[in-house]
Fold this protein.
Amino acid sequence: MSKIDEVRDYELFIGPNHPGIEGNFSFKMKLQGDKILSAKTDAGYLHRGFEKLMEERLFIQNIAIVCRICVPDPDPNENNYARAIEEIAGIEVPERAHWIRTLVLELSRLASHLFGLGGHVATTGLYAFPNWTIADRDRIMELFEELTGGRVYHIYQLPGGVRRDFPDGFERRVLDVMDYIESRLSDYDDLAINNSLFIKRATGIGVITKEQAIKWGVTGPNLRACGVAADVRKDDPYEVYDKLDFEIPTRTEGDAYARIIVRRKEIEQSISIVRQIIDKIPAGPVWNKIPNPLKWKVPAGDAYVRTESSKGEYAYYMVSDGGRNPYRVHVRGASTTHGVHVLENLLAGSRIEDASQIMFSLDACPPEVDR
């Protein structure tokens, strides 16, 4: 066989500075021409070791740590951590605090989806779209800053409730932001979601069958894009989700386009949920005070709690030995599954120009991989 006919294998690194990759995330790929033979992911090790860090810190101190496990959607971590302590210690949460927590979780879901949709579409070269969605996301970040004092990390949900109540006029401003984002959805559709070029690029890419999704442990929008209507908010309700009316969007194709459609439809559902909360939220206290947090000892016991984050099912298993800090906290997030196992399987056999899109369509949080 002549040298011209030889097939050459070679390795290529994409990231961590590639614009189509989330932050410090990267791939090491073995290629044959432009076909990917195999790929190994590298989460980048930016935020790491959260579980061991929590064992060395007071219960109250860890609230400032857990939100960093998933930067675009931090609040499910705060919620899981607080609820685990409440279950072990038997702490009651005021009714109004349950409603506020649910509002915060849905605002966080909205912000995360806007960020993720923009990143996904950008990997196909349509860079105007993330400029739109990230700018619109800033309006939600401003709400978080007003409510919690922080735009990205909120450190707001405490054992026993939330840190403080709404500022004056906050409900009206929340509704105004929901109206604005809803008004933008048709523009999103025109520019990207219904764009024939994007549809062609995303359709049939990174296909996960229903059987593969269940076997691999896929959750969240990635699972619902395969036709499985699984959602912790419906299947195992927490906070006040059992008092709200919302649908679980699904698709059956299981490809990159199906995944972005599910997230796009979830934005509509979250807007509806937020409006229902503002309409129904009761008056009352927002925090059942705990003892002095610097001396507080949580009774011995364990708890397993879970939420439905924008990335998928998020769960915490916490063990207390009766001391001032957790004996063990294990975080079971969606990103280790989606961003390593599933991603590496989908990349094998795909083409190099689709690698970034496949990764973004799975919407993983790299810090959670090395938690």
Notes: The mean pLDDT is 90. The radius of gyration is 21 Å.
